[in-house]
Structure formats: C-alpha cells, structure tokens
Amino acid sequence: ALWVGHGELTFIRPQRLVIHCEEKRPRYINGKEISNWQQGPTVSEAVNYLNMKGWQLDCDPSVLQRGYGKLIFLRPKQ
C-alpha cells in the first residue's frame, strides 16, 4: 500500500503473523513457541480474536477444520 503524506509517497509494508498449529491449537507464532500452548485457545478462537484485532487471514482456511498447519495473517502497520 502507498501512503501519501506531507507531499511524499511512502511504501507501507504489512505486518505479518505466521502461526503454526498442532492438536487444534496455535503452537508457534513467528517461529517462537507459545508457553503452555496446550491450554491456550483453539485455532478457531485464535482466528476470531485476531480478526477482531484487525488481522486478516491470508492463507487456506482449511487449517481451521484440520486443526494443524500454518496460518498467515496480515495487517497494515499503524
């Protein structure tokens, strides 16, 4: 996306979250393991929460049904 401000064009790169899910729960976010991930939210709960916070799912949503795999979320920098 381009932002026009103060007479200049600035390229704004989106923020990105890569979440690896196992056993129907997010386990890693951007390569870092979530502590106590087994007791954390389900994949669906995490996706709903991130959507409410302005993140957009940018991958195959079948991970929601399978409960494992990789989710990618994008959000413009603020």
Write the layout of secondary structure elements.
Layout: E1 2-5, E2 8-11, E3 14-22, E4 25-29, E5 32-33, H1 43-52, E6 56-57, H2 62-66, E7 69-76
Antiparallel strand pairs: 1-2, 3-4, 3-7, 4-5, 6-7
Structural description of this entry:
Helix content is 19%, strand content 44%. It is an alpha+beta fold. The strands form 2 sheets. Strands 5-4-3-7-6 form a 5-stranded antiparallel sheet, with helices on one face. A two-stranded antiparallel sheet has the order 1-2. The longest helix is centred in the middle third of the chain and has 10 residues, at 43-52. 12% of the residues are buried.
In short:
With 78 residues, the chain is of the alpha+beta class. The protein is 19% helix and 44% strand.
Instruction: Please tell me the overall pLDDT.
Output: 84
What is the rounded Rg? Answer: 15 Å
Q: Approximately how much beta-strand content do the residues carry?
A: 35-45%
Number of distinct beta strands: 7
> Gap between N and C termini, in Å?
12 Å
Return residue spans where pLDDT drops below 50 for at least 5 consecutive residues: none
Helix-strand topology string: EEEEEHEHE
Number of helices: 2
Provide the helix percentage: 10-25%
Largest pleated sheet: 5 strands, antiparallel
Keywords:
78 residues; alpha+beta; 5-stranded antiparallel β-sheet; two-stranded antiparallel sheet; globular
